[in-house]
UniProtKB/TrEMBL annotation:
The lineage of its organism: Bacteria, Pseudomonadati, Bacteroidota, Flavobacteriia, Flavobacteriales. InterPro entries: Carb-bd_dom_fam9 (IPR010502), DUF5916 (IPR045670). This is DUF5916 domain-containing protein. SUPFAM superfamilies: CBD9-like. It comes from Flavobacterium ponti. Pfam families: CBM9_1, DUF5916. Residues 230-799 form the DUF5916 domain.
Length: 799
């Protein structure tokens, strides 16, 4: 009976209401041309005069639904031929008010910009978005109901011109950059977007109602495109790179040559492959001192694993840094052996992914990557002989995804991830079923998942489950939601994903309020309250219990204030910190208060100031954090940003050692100081010098040792006397030059200097720590990389 009621409830939700926006969709007509269109930002060809203008844009922010200012109106015309679609946009404004900071590709910065959004299947599922800034900087993204993905890059052309009363953008978007059917008459989804930075206002062509949380279902219609054929989408990106590395141990030179391939299997599916990967110029990770039970999670900086990966992120089972990440085995040493080389990454041999979506809304994704054997080098201190020991065998990583979308706003997905290691020291397989159901009017949501993990860990089989369910109101000023979840003890998807906590059941609820139009004092206000609880499965002890309140306020001048207060009114228990099955430690009640003040980034000088204070219900245990970021824009070409962050944790309690069957904790003081400088100078919109500098210093000083009792509380330990203090310094310096000399083609030169130092005995003088890390065998690297983008269609025409 319960299953029947749930089925009827979901069926009612899925058929509730009719989208009132459907009948209000604007319709645009594209005009076919046969003559050559020069992309120069002038719109002086006769064909532009023959096309019908698209106008009457509507404000998206802050007064959602308000008509555009006649003095700042927008007019757009659309042309097409057998090879590409052309967009000519005129944005009227006083040229003195047009902001045009030059940034890197896919960065808006302080610049007016215009975007055009195409959906070649008109299915309200996925848009290809192309933006140009008033400075001529290109941005592109794939947009779904989950948001925008700016890691996707296409090859297209656009030029801008500033006139006496406007700025003009002229686009040429080849069909190879889009996806559409082979129908004789095309009907595409279309929307356009303009942002005026000086006024902090944005406009769209087809009205996007802020009441709804889904923008891609609110596009208009583009008609008039006929008798075009999807081109052969075949691209080659050969590259060559040179690296010179130098440190106190000597120097070495590396030369790499390889190729990336992109191939459109058909009008919907694309194959991406990397042969002989080269990620040597990706930005450095912001490594921190880790004192807790969980690893630090890093951002993905490798384009192959960020571009167009929305399908693979279903169910949050994919953490791409596992591919090429740390080895899983530790070397086994005899008494007279020491490790002389222990790699912290594995070498990626190659990777391939296939992804796309059929005309019936079925998304299919396949990703496969292979890493090679990785060895540690071990030296015998008595005989001086060396040997190698395998710490990560040849490994295959695989993801397979099916994502069926229906009714233009709902989906059911299946995903499977597997990791197979040669010799099977540890293999893993995880499957998940995910659903996201929305009413036709996008008023209510019912979502959830059910995941299963199978781990063969050195012959020990572990099976686990992870399930969750959420229901929420997703339309209007007032919204709410509530959900629950269950994760079993043996559930684990860490071989190709990342998960920190398991073995609990949870309940959560939230409610929010937001303004949809500006008030007399604010452009936007959002208030939210959340209650989250987690209970450990076997003991039913509370391991998380928080009540939080958040307020976001944006002034009429677009300065921002964010306040967050979190209260944990009960003692909780940590089942992860001790690191031994069945053991746990208690955590006291606490109160956490955070405030963030951010000035309008459109000003030459801007800043953001963050303060945080945490007070635990324990004598002397508290934490202070303050961070300040300041940015000054000297011109549209040159800016400098400096950020500093300081943290003081007093009487923190954490694990330090295992001794004689005892689990040793310490009451400790933790100090953290971080400095970052970023800067950019642009010669023009395709040539840039970039600087990124980071110095991170953190130390933990143990004041008193404690022994963990079986009940999770502590006794003083007066016999343990080992030095478990830690002082960590990390230095990174990157200076680079990039030149996009042709569409998709890049020359980059990078100088990198980095060093790190971890020590038990230290002093707390700032200058001494900085000097010590800079002199601790710094690594210097100079690299040059050349990549050239070859479009099969253009190459075919040339030859």
């Amino acid at each position: 009976m319960l299953k029947r009621l749930l089925y009827l409830y979901v069926l009612t939700l899925s058929t509730y209401a009719v989208n009132s926006q459907t009948s209000n969709k604007k319709v645009a007509q594209a005009h076919r041309v046969s003559n050559h269109i020069a992309v120069d930002g002038k719109l002086n060809e006769e064909e532009w005069n023959n096309a019908l203008p698209l106008k009457d844009f509507i404000m998206f922010y802050p007064d959602n639904g308000k008509e555009e200012n006649p003095d700042k109106k927008t007019e757009v015309k659309i042309l097409y031929d057998d090879d590409a679609i052309y967009v000519g946009a005129t944005m009227y404004d006083n040229p003195e008010n047009i902001l045009k900071e030059i940034k890197l590709r896919d960065q808006f910065g302080t610049s007016d910009h215009f975007g055009v959004f195409f959906n070649g299947f008109n299915d309200n599922q996925l848009e290809y978005r192309f933006f140009i800034s008033a400075a001529g900087v290109q941005l592109d993204a794939i947009a779904t109901s989950a948001g925008e993905d700016y890691t996707w890059d296409a090859i297209w052309d656009c030029k801008v011109k500033i006139t006496e009363n406007s700025w003009v953008a002229e686009f040429k978007i080849p069909y190879a950059a889009l996806r559409f059917s082979e129908n004789e008459k095309q009907i595409w989804g279309l929307n356009m977007y303009r942002e005026i930075k000086k006024d902090n206002t944005s406009y769209c062509w087809n009205f996007i109602d802020s009441n709804l949380n889904n923008e891609v279902v609110q596009a208009g219609i583009l008609e008039g495109i006929e008798n075009i054929k999807p081109p052969t989408r075949l691209f080659f990106i050969p590259y060559t790179s040179y690296y010179h590395n130098n440190n106190d141990n000597g120097s070495d030179n590396k030369f790499k040559i390889g190729m990336d391939i992109k191939y459109g299997i058909n009008d919907s599916f694309t194959l991406d492959a990397i042969l002989v990967p080269d990620f040597g110029q990706t930005t450095f990770d912001n490594v921190n001192l880790v004192l807790g039970p969980f690893e630090q999670q890093f951002n993905e900086n490798r384009p192959f694993f960020t571009e167009g990966t929305d399908l693979f992120n279903k169910g949050n089972l994919f953490y791409s840094r596992r591919i090429g990440g740390a080895p899983i085995l530790e070397p086994i040493l005899s008494a007279d052996e020491e490790i002389t080389e222990n790699p912290n990454t594995t070498n990626l041999l190659n990777a391939v992914k296939i992804s796309g979506r059929t005309s019936k809304g079925l998304g299919i994704g396949f990703l496969n990557a292979i890493t090679e054997d990785t060895y540690a080098e071990i030296s015998n201190t008595t005989t001086n002989q060396t040997r190698k020991e395998l710490i990560e065998p040849f490994t295959n990583f695989n993801i397979f995804v099916l994502d069926q979308r229906f009714r233009k706003n709902s989906s059911v997905s299946f995903i499977n991830t597997s990791v197979i290691r040669n010799g099977s020291p540890r293999d893993a397989n995880v499957s998940g079923l995910i659903f996201d159901l929305n009413t036709r009017a996008n008023t209510y949501k019912l979502s959830g998942d059910s995941k299963f993990s199978y781990i063969n860990d050195f012959g020990t089989i572990k099976r686990g489950t992870n399930s969750s369910l959420f229901f929420g109101d997703t339309k209007g000023k007032y919204q709410y939601g509530f959900g629950s979840g269950y994760i079993s003890k043996n559930y684990d998807h860490n071989d190709l994903g990342i998960i920190f906590r398991n073995n609990y059941y949870s309940f959560n609820t939230n409610g929010s309020y937001r303004t949809l139009k500006k008030t007399s004092h604010f452009n936007n206000i959002k208030l939210q309250s959340d209650i989250n609880t987690e209970f450990e499965n076997s003991t039913n002890k509370l391991q998380l219990g928080t009540i939080s309140f958040t307020g976001d306020f944006f002034s009429l001048k677009n300065d921002a204030l964010k306040l967050n207060a979190t209260l944990s009114p009960f003692e909780t228990f940590d089942f992860y910190f001790p690191g031994i099955d069945g053991r746990y430690n208690y955590n006291p009640k606490y109160f956490d208060l955070t405030s963030v003040i951010s000035s309008n980034r459109n000003r030459r000088y801007s800043f953001d100031l963050t303060g945080n204070f945490v007070k635990h219900d324990q004598p002397g245990r508290k934490s202070y954090t303050i961070s300040l970021g300041q940015e000054y824009r000297f011109s549209d070409k040159f800016f400098v940003r400096y950020g500093v962050r300081g943290i003081k944790d007093r009487n923190d309690i954490g694990l330090v050692d295992y001794n004689n069957n005892n689990i040793i904790y310490a009451r400790r003081d933790i100090n953290t100081l971080e400095h970052q400088i970023t800067s950019k100078y642009s010669i023009n919109n395709v040539m840039n010098f970039n600087l990124k500098v980071r110095y991170y210093w953190a130390n933990a000083i143990n004041n008193k040792f404690l022994t963990l009792r079986e009940d999770g509380y502590f006794d003083d330990n007066t016999t343990y006397n080992l030095n478990k203090n830690i002082n960590q310094n990390i230095w990174n310096f990157d200076l680079s030059y990039t030149w996009w000399f042709a569409p998709g083609s890049l020359v980059s030169v990078l100088y990198r200097n980095n060093a790190s130092l971890a020590e038990r005995n230290f002093n707390t003088n700032f200058s001494n720590n900085l000097k010590n890390v800079l002199s601790n065998n710094p690594n210097n690297t100079i690299s040059i990389s050349f990549r050239y983008y070859i479009d099969y269609n253009q190459a075919k025409n040339i030859f």
